[in-house]
Amino acid sequence: MLTGSFNRLAVALAAAGLFFGGQSLSLAQTDTPSVIWQKQAEQDVVLVKGLAAKATRWSEDQWRKAFKVSVESGDLTSSLSLPPMLGSYDIGETSVTFTPQFPLTPGLKYRATLQLQRLPDYPGKPALLSSTHTVPAMVVEPTTIVQAVYPSANVLPENLLKFYLHFSAPMSGGHIYSHIHLLNSDGQPVELPFLEIDEELWNPEMTRLTLFIDPGRIKREVKPLEDIGPALESGKSFTLVIDKEWRDGRGAPLKETFRKQFKVSPPDRSAPDPKKWAIKPAPAKTQKPLIVTFPKPMDHALAQRLMWVTDADKKHIAGDVTLSDAEKRWEFTPNQAWQPGRYLLNVQNTIEDLSGNNIGKPFEVDLFEKVEKRISSETLSFPFEVK
Amino acid sequence: MKQLPRILSTLCAAGLLVTSASAANWTEGMKAGKADVKSVSQLAFGPEGILFIADSKSAAVFALDTGDKKATPAATLKVEAINGKIAAMLGTSADQITITDMAVNPISHNAYIAVARGRSASAAPVIIRVDKSGKLEAVSLDKMKFSKAVLPDAPVDGVVGEGNRKSNPRMESITDIAFLEDRVLIAGLSNEEFSSSLRAIPFPFKTVANGTSVEIYHGAHGRFETRSPVRTFVPFKVGNEPQLLAAYTCTPLVQFPMKDLAPGAKIKGKTVAELGNRNRPLDMIVYQKDGKDYLLMANSSRGIMKISTDNIEGVESITAPVGGGGTKGLGYKTIDSWTGVEQLDRLDDKLALVVRRDENKVMTLESLPLP
Questions:
Q1: Inter-chain contact A364–B192, Cβ cutoff 8 Å?
Q2: Which range among A164-173, A234-243, B78-87, B245-254 shows the weakest confidence by mean pLDDT?
Q3: Which residue of B88, B157, B265 is in closest CB contact with A85?
Q4: Exposed site from A39, B27, B68, B202, fewest CB < 10 Å?
Q5: Taking CB atoms and an 8 Å cutoff, what residues of chain A touch B268?
Q6: Domain tally for chain A?
Q7: What residues of B are in contact with residue A366 (Cβ under 8 Å)?
């Protein structure tokens, strides 16, 4: 949609001391070119037409100096002090087309300015012409919600390492931490509980944010914990709040503020032990799930990514994984019915529980006396039989 | 956004340092064309105007031959409302852009600013060059000579694509990048595993594939070895020994020798300072003043810390808790007047270049005398 209008720039010209053409383009005459906003192939472009000479008479560099497009920033003087927009100039015989490098932003007003006196030896009347174009603001209904927060349990260990926030649609990033709060049982915010990093740990689609608890508030013997204590305290209750003012990828706020209340249990510094996991195979010739139950909740993302099923020859079995029962129950539903035989449940030892402890190695290890020379990342396999 | 320490860069600029590295053809393996950069997380300059671009979305590092290698002395610089000016160039409003990093070309002393245009998953990466007169110009990624190194995926990714999951939600954000001698050093933070990865990739990149990359983990601060990620780091030298100083997200400052970096190695660093609560490191530079060595660290508490590293060899590793609000290790002071510093690099021997943000979210690019 075009909302272009043509203006006389008396103020700007007086300020800039420029020669004033004095023609309103709505009354365009043959010797006055026009500046026209158009949509071409779904993109907003600006054209200069009706020149008194062939446009090719001037170089691209000369056109860049004479024909500029900029964001309107309120007053004209400050608009003129801003650098022009990046874009390409297509110089034809009778017209010049400016295509912005990036799509225009809804809700903003743009101004294209042509200063004919900047085209050397322009044969027609020198004039300053301009045309504005406002991109309509998008009206977007708030529909996006916080779909889930993991861990889903309502009792979490004091040394909880992270939350995963799952949104129903792609979100927007940049200064997100002002929308995330941890409140104590009095409703007072906990000071700086999260690791706030500019990089913002999103998945590629920006539907999941990983929120680490400030590691300085979890680890023993580091100064923040010594000085001000943990972010979460055993025995107390907390609420994680996600403000609805957070905008989604379309620019709409969330449909509602999200709250997750939970209680805090003592810190967990024990490594997960797969020997304590219960593996319950499904009957052969069915597509019922293989069920693995953990004695304690596991990390939602890692339990999905770092556990998989193979046959006895280590060939992958395709299927879907779901987690339930506060991430203590892992279910694998194969794409095709189970065949009788031996299978393997494979687990990478870097899988973590809620406190970042992984198999065979708690989050914190006393290594004062010895340092392991190599990093070990290995896969553990647990056989089971389908009958 | 790291430069070589002063002495080294001075020698390089003067052409006095003839090493195997300077004999190397730094643009070896580069091809002209469109560099398919999906995001610009971090910037760092290498030799001869080569700009390293860390692209978290692509899990890759690009080396771009900017051609910006005409030696010119640094000058004081101040560009007010730089975020508004960049937004105008990109045809949008200041709230729709994010400045993700800034690096100074140590040869030309032009500043390079990494910008994300837009705040959604489709945000476009842009690099803006600011010259000494304060003029802004977009750096084209379409035509320059470049090479690319894809990062090896740190943890073994057993199932993606084959088994359970159709798409991989795991991403690694590159939190810092630096060039030292003939290696690009990369610190990353995963959005799933809470692990520290610090990689060193030989440059020029030998192949586009990950074959030549090495992968380095390290840990240790004090008694407890943990998997805390490195937030930012800076290469420097103690005597002739190249070292890294790494600031962790949980605030210890750890030193370790570069020679210990070897594929799969696990290094026990030396904790030389504990910075304490609210000090979340963003950027570090090293410099000398009056013959003494210093480290300048920007942190998110909106102050800046000046840390004396002169006695770094003599400092004993902190192996016991530093309680009661006290400090141990290297001494430091907070410079309150440098408020709102979000990006920091060294402009020359006397000046730092910073991007500061005021209460009204207006950002200024300016040079400040090194304290």
A1: no
A2: B245-254
A3: B88
A4: A39
A5: 367, 371
A6: 3
A7: 223-225
Predicted pLDDT at B160? 43
Candidate from B120, B171, B225 with C-beta closest to A172: B120
For B54, phi then psi, to 5°, come to -90, 120
Predicted pLDDT at B202: 83
Min Cα–Cα distance to chain A from B153, Å: 13
Residue type, B105: N
In the prediction, which pLDDT does B172 show? 79
Which residues sit opposite B138 in a β-bridge? B128
Residue A140 located in a structural domain = no
Shortest alpha-carbon distance between residue A372 and chain B (Å): 7
Across the interface, whether the CB atoms of B169 and A203 are under 8 A apart is answered yes
Residues B252-285 pLDDT 10s: 787 878 777 665 566 667 778 777 666 778 889 9
* Residue B8: φ, ψ to 5°: -60, -45
Instruction: State how far residue A33 is from chain B, nearest Cα, in angstroms.
Output: 24
* Two tokens, residue A135: 């991109």
| Domain shared by A208 and A155, yes or no | yes
pLDDT digits 0-9 by tens, B23-41: 568 998 899 999 999 999 9
Split at pLDDT 50, 70, 90, the class of A377 is low
Q: What is the pLDDT of residues B156-172, one digit of tens each?
A: 334 443 444 445 777 87
Minimum distance, in Å, between the CA of residue A31 and any CA atom of chain B: 31
* Domain range for A281: 274-386
A348: chain B residues, CB-CB within 8 Å: 155-156, 158
Domain limit, last residue, from A208, A234, A265: A265
In a domain, A15, yes or no: yes
Q: What is the CATH number of the domain that holds A32?
A: 2.60.40
CATH number, position A306 = 2.60.40.1220
| A279/A261 same-domain check | no
On whether the CB atoms of residues B275 and B304 are closer than 8 A, the answer is: no
Q: Which of B167, B191, B300 sits opposite A202 (nearest CB)?
A: B191
Tokens 């560009």 sit on residue: B79
Lowest mean pLDDT among A361-365, B100-104, B141-145: A361-365
CATH of B6-153+171-358, one of 2.60.40, 3.30.450, 2.130.10, 1.10.260: 2.130.10
Q: What percent of chain B has pLDDT over 90?
A: 42
Contact between B88 and A83 using a beta-carbon 8 Å cutoff: yes
Among B63, B70, B71, B68, residue whose Cα is nearest residue B25: B63
Of B184, B189, B177, the closest CA to residue B43 belongs to B177
**Which DSSP string corresponds to B205-256?**
-S-SSGGG-EEEEEE-BTTEE--PPEEEEEEEEETTEEEEEEEETTSEEEEE
